[in-house]
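Final report, section 2: Outcomes. Of the targets proposed, Glycosyltransferase involved in cell wall biosynthesis is the one most frequently requested by collaborating groups, and we therefore present its record in full.
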Amino acid sequence: MNDDNKISVVINTYNAERHLQQVIDAAKGFDEIVVCDMESTDNTVNIAQNNGCRVVTFEKRDYNIVEPARQFAIESATFSWVLVLDADEIVSKQLTAYLYEHISKPDCEEGVAIPRKNYFMGKFMHASYPDYILRFFKKDLTTWPPIIHASPIVKGRVIRLPRNRKDLAFEHLANDSIATLNHKNNVYSDNEISKRRDKHYGIGALLVRPSFRFIRAYILKGGFKDGVAGFIYAVWQGIYQFTIVAKIMEYKRKQND
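The predicted structure is given below as tokens.
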């Protein structure tokens, strides 16, 4: 098999010992696993080394923003095709086989967006599926912007895997508590200010955006199927939108003072 038909897996980590062994075990069907660690203080690096992963280090800058390390991790990969995993994402055997079949085809697409199965309060969340993320691509045609929640930019064609093929979806091991969601809400909404500071939201946005996000999550995407957990998750989605708009309004008032 030449290098054009080989796949490198890259995993960005910081104190990721909780799920890392499971993630690595599931990814051992690929040609290489590169762990890009941001100076972890737990057992992360030992786990990676003990499993034969190649470990590279990226200076820790901000625990909450991993994106600046993404590009470094991608550039550290040996092979032409790269699959990016978070340290709490499991890749299935079916997905592994699918990706190798994909790159074996002549003139295949340069990027593949993969669905992800998310959980909350121990339940699979219909409201957040398929949660497509662009994580498989040709290395030399891809850049990853250093902005939180940014998606990679692929110079080429990108396809989405069928949403009804749940066997091809990532299994997201994170099962965030409400306290964790509230923390993420605060951190992520802070980062949205820099991305949306040119937006001009009126008071109506404080009602419309949260309401739409709740309706989208609970009704349009089937969150009602998930019982109480689905209702809480949908409300949290609305709260997140409310927080973003409120913080941008606060930011603009401070700028005008």
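The domain at 3-172 is CATH 3.90.550.10 (Spore Coat Polysaccharide Biosynthesis Protein SpsA; Chain A).
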